[in-house]
Amino acid sequence: MSDRFHIDTKKSDVLVIGAGGAGARAALAAAMAGAAVTLVSRSPLGQGGLTPSGNGGYHAAMWPGDSPEIHAEDLISMGCYLNDPDLVYTMTSEAPMRAKELAEFGAKVNFNIPPKPAEPQMRFPRSLFCPGREILRTLNGKLRGMSNVTILENHLATRLLVSKGRVVGAVTLGLSDGTIRVCTAKTVVLAAGSLGELYPLTSQEPMGVPTGSTGTGYAMAAWAGAELVDMEEIQFAITPARGPNRGMRCLPWAKMVNAKGEEFVTPGEGPYSDIVARDVWREISEGRGPVIMDLRGELRDTSRKMDPVTELRGKILDDMEAMPWQKPVEVGIGSLYCMGGVRINKDTQTSLPGLFAAGEVSGNVHGGRRVSGNAFPEMIVFGARAGEAASKEALAMLSVPEADQDQVNSEVDYLNTLVEGSKTGSVDHREIRKEVRDIMYKDAHMFRNETDLTAGLQRIDEVKAMLPKLACGQGLIYNLDLVGCIDARAMVTTAGAVLTAALARKESRGAHYRTDYPELSTEVNHTVLRSMDDGWDVRLVPVSPARR
Amino acid sequence: MTYATLEVFRQDASLGIAPHFDIFKVPLDEKDKTTVLEALEYILMNLDSSLGFRRYCCGLQSCNSCLMEIDGKAAPACHTLVEGGRTTRVKPLEGKVARDLIVDK
User: Fold this and answer.
1) What is the CA angle A125-A128-A129, rounded to 5?
2) Which residues make beta-bridge pairs with B69?
3) ipTM for this prediction
4) Residue in B49, B56, B58 closest to A481 by CB
5) Res A286: pLDDT
6) Is residue B65 part of a domain?
7) Other C-beta atoms within 10 Å of B75: how many?
């Protein structure tokens, strides 16, 4: 009865998966180098992913006396020495130049750095400012005007294509036209964003609505055979736990009480403190919640000048009467950022020939802790470098490699089976999503230990066994049920990677906190994962020494 | 427990579903309000997984992804509140309906 998907093909020099800041910047760099570029975007351009909600803090060493070296040292010390020094120095060296480039493209970049460092551990003020939506407006405007760029909006990449050990493209699903496109390319840039939605509360679902941060990029890279690094390093933050402002980050941090009305925050800790976030999680996870922030009757400090995006966010919360000065706000701990990801070198090459990665999906820039204001330079510097490196390699190749037809057929069959699956399938993707989020909440949240992680992995295996029975409702056009099934498959893989890496890191470093190994280990190792037929191959690889 | 009622426009030409409205009851926490967008997310995840809408929020009321006609006026679903005991009617904006509340440009 139901139709099957139409099949189409698309050949290009460079295929870019993901149209947030990193993907858009990569596409622009590749197109400016003369490559024929295809950019795949899950949503209409500028209306998806996390970049549009980015405040705009962009750290660059431009203050008198500061230098890329000092910036890098600050980040590596804050990252608990887990950062790849090569990546950090590359980012801090290029951050000023890449910000100027953005301004030349027409973005309104504020180069007037506020004189106070963003965090006390930073030795210099570094906050340039350009909101995410301004970056996307600029990059997308340029991309739309280029004849060598094809933009596939409302397209979901579902699997990378590998032929003779090389990534040669991806299968994409057009949500608006019900067409599966076999997109082959000489090189592929993966810029598919984060995994925040693996957790039930996340700042990657502003106002409780998903942004598509389901970890598809990590999963696609893993299925293709690329290495993932330090997947256990996930940053968490305090956010409102309920109501229309759930997941939004615009709260003062102090004055919290548990269910008994007791204050519990470690004295002397400042905003953004991991210690305060851990204090909150301890109360909640040990059953002393809910944690309430209640500032009614307190004087509200309006003197501190905020950036315009943070001010806007505050105003929205005010309008909804959701600020702790207006009513008590229940807070929780949400996932915020994944420091780990697809393992890259400074030219954004992954461990797989033909595959490059940039932005949050890539790993190792921030080590154990992402300092605020440093996600944007990562996105722009490595986005640009990915586009440059991928186009350089592509333009030196004579022809676009052929896809392995068996692999294409198997993915096409899989997608067709999902929409026809009401006949045989019995599992709803919402059950899988709920289960994965429950596992991550119970077993891989802020405090971890061997017993929980092992139990979590066991449960992930059980969920994995349910995947072949996934079924969704009818329809080839904008079938969110189908999107949910495709995401569910990726969530299971990516959750498995986080649990496996967390089990392998037998120490507490950065955001990764093991109650059974609370100390730092003397050796500093990366966890490096590769997906095998029967699970994950896990290696511990020493961090390369700092360059100077 | 109070409920907000939503009358949601439905149509999918590709499946032969003619334009009509479906009525959903979304539970509200008594203390909290919900936005139209979050109510739609609740419907999708709990009541009807076949619903089509632009399932995205930038959290800054600036991306216009969730613009739709709410009680007769074009408004962003992410900052229009629904309330207990009241009925809110949501329709897609003018244009060719791809599925339910989604209009293709």
Assistant:
1) 135
2) B74, B91
3) 0.96
4) B49
5) 94
6) yes
7) 16
Rounded CA gap, A523 and A341, in Å? 21
pLDDT band at A29 (very low <50, low <70, confident <90, very high): very high
DSSP alpha helix (H) spans, A13-131? 21-32, 68-78, 85-105
Task: Say if the Cβ atoms of A207 and B57 lie within 8 Å.
Answer: yes
CA dihedral B60, B63, B65, B66 (to 10 degrees): 40
Terminal-to-terminal C-alpha distance of chain B:
39
- Span A320-329, average pLDDT: 82
Report the CATH number that the domain containing residue B84 is assigned in CATH.
Answer: 3.10.20.30
What pLDDT does residue A548 have?
43
Q: Is the Cα dihedral B72, B69, B62, A101 positive or negative?
A: negative
Closest CA to B36 of B4, B62, B72, B1: B4
Query: Please, are residues A216 and A513 in contact by the beta-carbon 8 Å criterion?
Result: no
CA triple B48-B18-B67, angle to 5 deg:
60
- Using the Cβ of A53 and the Cβ atoms of chain B, whether some distance falls under 8 Å is answered with yes
Residue of B nearest to A433 (CA): B45
Q: 3-class SS at A229? A: strand
The first and second tokens of residue A170, run together, are 């991806």
What does the pLDDT read at residue A316?
Answer: 80
Interface of A with B in 66-125 (CB under 8 A): none
Bridge partner list, A346: none
Q: Which residues span the domain enclosing B52?
A: 3-95
* Closest-approach residue (CA) in chain A for B51: A480
- Rounded to two decimals, the pTM is 0.96
In a domain, B21, yes or no: yes
By Cβ distance, the residue of A207, A476, A480 closest to B78 is A207
Rounded to an integer, the average pLDDT of A438-442 is: 98
Nearest CA in chain A to B102: A478
Alpha carbon distance A53, A375 (integer Å)? 12
* A308-316 own/partner pairs: CB under 8 Å, 24+ apart: A308/A131, A309/A54, A309/A55, A309/A56, A309/A131, A309/B60, A310/A55, A310/A250, A312/B60, A312/B61, A312/B62, A313/A248, A313/A249, A313/A250, A313/B59, A313/B60, A314/A250, A316/A245, A316/A248, A316/B59, A316/B60, A316/B61, A316/B79
Q: Does B62 contact A52 at a Cβ distance shorter than 8 Å? A: yes
Gyration radius of chain B over CA positions:
13
Q: Which pLDDT value is given to residue A499?
A: 98
Distance from CA of A341 to the nearest CA of B (A): 23
**Partner-chain residue, chosen from B32, B81, B105, that has the shortest CB–CB distance to A242:** B32
Q: Note whether residue B12 is domain-resident.
A: yes
Nearest to A63 by CA among A126, A128, A130, A129: A126
Please provide the size of chain A in residues: 548
Chain B residue set in contact with A, beta carbons under 8 Å? 12, 14-15, 29, 31-35, 37-38, 41, 44-45, 49-65, 78-79, 81, 98-99, 102, 104-105
Q: Which two tokens stand for residue A453?
A: 């992680």
Report how many domains make up chain B.
Answer: 1
The amino acid at A323: M
- The verdict on residue B100 lying in a domain is no
- According to the model, what pLDDT value does residue A295 have? 83
- Model confidence at B95, in pLDDT bands (50, 70, 90)? very high
